[in-house]
Amino acid sequence: MAGTGCKIKLESVSKSFDDKIGRTAVLDEISLNVYENEFLVILGPGQCGKTVLLNIIADMEQADSGTITFDPQSSGQTGFVFQRYALFNWKNVLKNVELPLKFKGAEKEQRQNTAMKYIEMVGLKGFEKAYPSQLSGGMKQRVGIARAYASGNDIILMDEPFGALDAQTRYQMQDELLKIRSKEKKTIVFVTNNIEEAIYMGDRILLLSNKPSKVVKEYVPDLERPRKNTSSQFMELRDEITANMDLAL
Ligand SMILES: Nc1ncnc2c1ncn2[C@@H]1O[C@H](COP(=O)(O)OP(=O)(O)O)[C@@H](O)[C@H]1O
Ligand SMILES: [Mg+2]
User: Exposed, middle or buried by CB within 10 Å (0-12, 13-18, 19+), for 177?
Assistant: First the structure.
């Protein structure tokens, strides 16, 4: 797979869980490629298995069957941005952002310099000594994004990162993330259940069905950036995806 521009390749990945009602199949032979530096959106209804899929890619969960292959030039490690921020409340912004570098054994000075670079990039300069409880939801997620970038990993997985934000902040953060991404290219896998967000953000969109979920369709929005959610092409694509997307069970 070296030289193909493919960063991650999933082949027939399946996953079930045992629960009170028996065995629930969540992922049904999911196959997909993630290409270098693309912004790939995985769109699907609530409870269809998006988080399970990302966790499997991040090696936080094991698939029952199938394979996940990383480009050999990639470390196979990923930065992760969580829906509920997952910040350490007793650590300030700087210490939160430094953490992945600390785990990697980086020296203090290098850690701080790198963390400060990304704190600045996400627009939080001046807040490095603040604690998460002093920050708004949007600011907390800026910290989450800075931390994922500071990890130095070339792949970043984002699990409904703006799902907990109010609509206005969500729009702002979408633009902010696209701006950050234009400054430093990464391969991004972004999960959402929001069709407009998927179209606004994605270079490519993979639509999942309800569980046991499969990839039902791929969309490549042919829309100039910055995209406008009131343009006729945007609305046509929104209608088309809406018609093909399951309602959450
Ligand atoms: N640890 C678990 N134990 C049992 N079932 C689980 C577990 N994690 C996920 N599931 C099942 O997987 C389904 C999909 O979960 P999830 O990936 O969190 O959905 P999504 O992120 O798409 O909203 C859940 O509805 C649940 O049935
Ligand atoms: Mg989820």
Answer: buried
Whether residues 147 and 179 fall in one domain:
no
Non-local (6+) Cβ contacts of 91 within 8 A are 99, 131
Same domain, 148 and 160: no
- Are 180 and 225 found together in one domain? yes
Residue 70 domain flag: no
Q: Is the CB of 15 under 6 A from ligand 1?
A: no
pTM for the whole thing? 0.96
Residues 87 and 210 grouped into a single domain: no
Q: What is the pLDDT of residues 101-126, one digit of tens each?
A: 988 888 999 999 999 999 999 999 99
CA distance 84 to 77: 21
| Alpha carbons 75 and 60: distance in angstroms, whole number | 16
67 lies in some domain: no
70: CA distance to ligand 1 center in Å? Answer: 24
Q: What is the pLDDT of residues 15-38, one digit of tens each?
A: 999 988 899 999 999 999 999 999
Yes or no: say if 58 and 157 are a contact pair by the CB < 8 Å rule: yes
CA of 16 to the centre of ligand 2 (A): 16
Instruction: Indicate if 160 and 247 belong to the same structural domain.
Output: yes
Q: Is residue 48 in contact with ligand 1, taking CB distance under 6 Å?
A: yes
Three-state DSSP state, 204: strand
Dihedral class, residue 126 (left if φ above 0, else alpha if ψ from -120 to 50, else beta): left
Q: What is the CATH number of the domain that holds 169?
A: 3.40.50.300
Q: What are phi and psi of 235, to 5 degrees?
A: -70, -35
